[in-house]
């Protein structure tokens, strides 16, 4: 078997997840080099502790950079993602409340950018924007932050859905359109004149699309990375259980720095039991630092897919 077995069939999103320090960035680089030999590929790191450029052997920044014939890469600037997300949100509010001329939202920008959880919303917005380019970049590979952040990132549409549903119910009562909203929730097409309600319903539709994005196991592949140590494995199990509650599964598990010894074989058996539907990828312990495309290609030759 080859790494082709763990990629989406024709095009799609690949999220590399796992505990900090297990080798997510290294495997993101490995998979992106491999994928780019097949189809146009975009690899990004949304981990604030960027090392993707170091592994690939290129200086990367927020601006996209071509580093091979079929490979574009960047290290997303989280502050820039927040600015882009807030600018879009503020413009939406301004358009929805044009009649309130005294509403000066710009002065709240600095406060909003430091709000708890805003970076996770910005990351989600960025991933969704990349997915819209999937016909240009057939494979979109995302090197994610530590599991505590990634779990909240993937679960965010469900949290947003609860809030927006409550706002829709409240606005429909204010506008006297409760029966109309019940029809909308039932999937019926109706005409709504209330502009704020229209915006909320559009937000709800976008949230549902984002849920389906993560739940579509043919298009979106969640690949967990661990080592043979206990803590990263436990961390990955916790993430897997959290994702299962959303109807999302980890499609493959990478054992980084694998050694074919008694402990290594024991870990393989354990992971097969805990992740019965997932493919296992063995990335061997190398006797050199993997910090260039040339060295990555040597590692690819030694990888086993079970």
UniProtKB/TrEMBL annotation:
The protein, known as: Anion transporting atpase
Domain of life, source organism: Archaea
Pfam families: ArsA_ATPase
Residue ranges of every copy of the ArsA/GET3 Anion-transporting ATPase-like domain listed in the record: 13-301
Family according to the record: Belongs to the arsA ATPase family.
Gene Ontology MF: a single term: ATP binding
Gene3D superfamilies (alphabetical): P-loop containing nucleotide triphosphate hydrolases
NCBIfam families for this protein: GET3_arsA_TRC40
InterPro entries assigned to the protein according to its UniProt record, in alphabetical order: ArsA/GET3_ATPase-like, ATPase_ArsA/GET3, P-loop_NTPase
